[in-house]
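Below is a filled-in request sheet from our internal design queue. Each sheet records the structural input a requester submitted and the sequence that came back. We keep these sheets so that new team members can see what a complete request looks like end to end.

REQUESTER: design group, bay 2
PRIORITY: normal
MODE: inverse folding
CHAIN LENGTH: 703
BACKBONE (tokenized):
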């Protein structure tokens, strides 16, 4: 019998309360593993630290946090702040410092009487500018942004067929977007070039995909940034110079700094990049520095190589950049540079003692608009020509409608960025195939699971390629056995035996000719057939010593040939044991690809199967298509989506799902009400059948 409305409300309330209790219990059970004793807050001074909104600067912030801990300070934060908010707060003494200052770009934000720039983390290494792929530049002689005034050149980069080149630029509201627009106007390019604006992360990801497909690309970027590790200046792309120095009026004082020496991938040296180089520096409240001279001395010394920052940024984006990943990157950097770090600490304060601390955060409740930070991962989130779709996108839109809210989605590169945006209240929800794991539960809260699935195995479909793969595996098995060495022993033994029998029989046996050239061939023939068949009888030893040697050779030959036969049989047996892959039990002994630091990686290493590790599932698809691996093990929804779409007819999944994987929406730990509303909305969608429709639309009945 159907439940009444009050009964339904009570049931759902109990479910929500239970879920909340479990979440709070899990959070309360987390014990910091710092290895540091509890400290009296009165015994340590406190640094209130901030960081910028761009996650490519969070590695440096974490390094400085570790250094301040080594110096004996308790660190609150770092909290993420917009540029104007930080400079106002640090001048007012509401925060003490950050290490993400870009100068001269931030010069206009500083209140000189209350705020100081301290030290130089990166000296003139923060560069900005325009890039084009090297192939197109070389083929058409493109070296300058002004070359795009030619409609034929501009047409090479026209993505939307409107007659103008599409320059992938900055997000609306970023300072760089205004400078790009100024350049287009100043250089008379309005008629042939347009700045494409939107979420920078998916736009630049699409740009890289076009480059990898051999298509022309035109875009803006900066250093340090992960993009310069993917499209390397001087190798993959080249800088575009500007026709002449030009900056908006508020930055005109830096016009003489827009020409820079030693730029790889630029047609000229110095290169007129059109943007002044920036120093990355720490910025702190003057009163705080006066009261804490040890911090000033530390900040004055710290230098982080630009190459290290760029490498970490690329690693962070490749491996999805969970908060613990960024912390680990910083810890590893400090460990690798322990000598210079110790010198910094010693110079700042010889008596410094390391302390541990927690991290403070700000949260803001949700409003009428559900702000969603999305990380692209098909089929969960797909970014296509400025629009978002996918399984989780469809689901979150229905959940928002259930709550009477509208949805605004923007893209980020890393889980760490999603977590931080949620903590700061910039985003209400994070999505993009984020698996619910223990470490993530410590950093953020999750909704009820959106999808309860597991790992699966993807292999090539049967066909000529599969047959050739089996032959290749067989040959590889033989080459990896003792058979090659036995062949060498066999050849050397036959040559020695041939020379001995010829020397013993040459003077009295017409079966072995006296001239060496002819006789050694007859002897070689005798040596081989005697070993393999115990002789045909057409050539036999006649002398006493020759017959004695023949008996010995027959006995040795039998042993060598038996070993040769056994090696072949062993290789065939190994190949047969490898057989086809039909499920998890068949994985050992095969070449298996999986994604770094994924559930598949954990499973395979635990199984004792040393996987071939890639940093993106697309790379695993390529390895499988090229026959370099036998199978791919990864999250079932991702592989099943690929099988049903791009890989249709070429690959298939086999065996049952294994190793449970659950995905959820990330929400703030402090916004329990929003999480409960999302959970109840999700239950409604499941009960109404709407969830099943979305599920079947994206997974085609496979999941």
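RETURNED SEQUENCE:
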């Amino acid at each position: 019998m159907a439940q009444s409305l009050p009964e339904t409300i009570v049931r759902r309330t109990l479910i929500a309360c239970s879920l909340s209790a479990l979440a709070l219990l899990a959070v309360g059970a987390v014990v910091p593993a710092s290895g540091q004793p509890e400290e009296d807050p009165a015994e340590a001074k406190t640094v209130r630290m901030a960081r910028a909104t761009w996650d490519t600067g969070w590695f440096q912030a974490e390094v400085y946090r570790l250094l301040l801990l080594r110096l004996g300070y308790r660190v609150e934060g770092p909290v993420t702040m917009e540029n104007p908010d930080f400079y106002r707060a640090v001048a007012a003494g509401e925060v003490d410092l950050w290490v993400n200052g870009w100068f001269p770009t931030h010069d206009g934000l500083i209140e000189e009487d209350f705020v100081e720039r301290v030290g130089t983390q990166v000296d003139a290494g923060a560069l900005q500018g325009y890039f084009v792929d090297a192939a197109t530049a070389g083929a058409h002689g493109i070296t300058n942004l002004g070359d795009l005034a030619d409609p034929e050149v501009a047409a090479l980069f026209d993505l939307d067929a409107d007659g103008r080149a599409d320059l992938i630029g900055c997000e609306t509201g970023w300072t760089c977007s205004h400078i790009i627009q100024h350049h287009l106007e100043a250089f008379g390019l309005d008629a042939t070039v347009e700045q494409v604006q939107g979420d920078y992360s998916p736009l630049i990801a699409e740009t890289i995909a076009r480059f990898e497909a051999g298509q022309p690309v035109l875009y803006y970027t900066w250093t340090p940034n992960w993009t310069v590790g993917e499209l390397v200046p001087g190798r993959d792309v080249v800088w575009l110079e500007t026709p002449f120095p030009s900056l908006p009026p508020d930055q005109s004082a830096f016009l003489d700094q827009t020409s820079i020496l030693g730029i790889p991938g630029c047609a000229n040296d110095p290169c007129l990049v059109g943007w002044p180089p920036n120093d990355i520096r720490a910025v702190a409240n003057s009163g705080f520095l006066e009261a804490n001279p040890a911090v000033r001395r530390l900040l004055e010394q710290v230098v982080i190589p630009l190459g290290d920052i760029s490498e970490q940024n690329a690693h962070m984006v490749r491996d999805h950049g969970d908060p613990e990943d960024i912390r680990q990157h910083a810890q590893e950097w400090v460990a690798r540079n322990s000598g210079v770090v110790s010198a910094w600490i010693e110079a700042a304060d010889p008596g410094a003692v390391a302390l541990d601390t927690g991290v403070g955060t700000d949260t803001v409740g949700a409003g009428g608009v559900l702000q969603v930070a999305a990380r692209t991962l098909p089929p969960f989130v797909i970014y296509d020509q400025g629009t978002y779709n996918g399984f989780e996108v469809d689901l979150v839109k229905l959940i928002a409608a259930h709550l009477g809210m509208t949805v605004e989605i923007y893209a980020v590169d890393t889980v760490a960025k999603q977590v931080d945006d949620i903590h700061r209240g910039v985003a209400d929800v994070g999505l993009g195939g984020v698996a619910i794991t223990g470490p993530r539960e410590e950093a953020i809260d999750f909704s009820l699971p959106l999808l309860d699935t597991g790992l699966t195995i993807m292999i090539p479909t049967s066909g000529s390629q599969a047959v050739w793969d089996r032959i290749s595996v067989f040959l590889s098995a033989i080459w990896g056995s003792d058979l090659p060495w036995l062949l060498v022993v066999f050849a050397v033994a036959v040559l020695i035996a041939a020379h001995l029998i010829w020397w013993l029989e040459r003077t009295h046996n017409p079966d072995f000719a006296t001239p060496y050239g002819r006789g050694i061939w007859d002897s070689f023939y005798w040596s081989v057939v005697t070993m393999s068949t115990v002789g045909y009888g057409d050539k036999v030893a006649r002398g006493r010593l020759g017959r004695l040697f023949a008996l010995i050779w027959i006995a040795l030959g039998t042993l060598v040939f038996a070993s040769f036969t056994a090696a072949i049989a062993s290789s065939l047996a190994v190949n047969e044991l490898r057989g086809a892959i039909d499920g998890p039990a068949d994985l050992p002994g095969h070449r298996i690809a999986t994604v770094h630091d994924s559930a598949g990686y954990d499973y395979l290493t635990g199984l004792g199967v040393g996987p071939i590790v890639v940093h993106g599932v697309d790379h695993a698809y390529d390895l499988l298509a090229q026959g370099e691996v036998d199978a791919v093990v990864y999250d079932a929804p991702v592989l099943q989506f690929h099988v049903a779409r791009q890989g249709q007819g070429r690959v298939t999944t086999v065996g049952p799902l294994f190793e449970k994987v659950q995905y959820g929406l990330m929400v703030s730990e402090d916004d329990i009400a929003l999480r409960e509303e999302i959970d109840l909305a999700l239950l409604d969608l499941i009960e109404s059948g709407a969830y099943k429709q979305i599920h079947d639309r994206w997974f085609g009945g496979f999941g």
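SHEET NOTES:
- The first strand starts at residue 46 and ends at 51.
- The chain has five domains: 40-120+280-348, 128-276, 369-450+666-697, 457-475+580-661, 481-578.
FILED BY: M.R.
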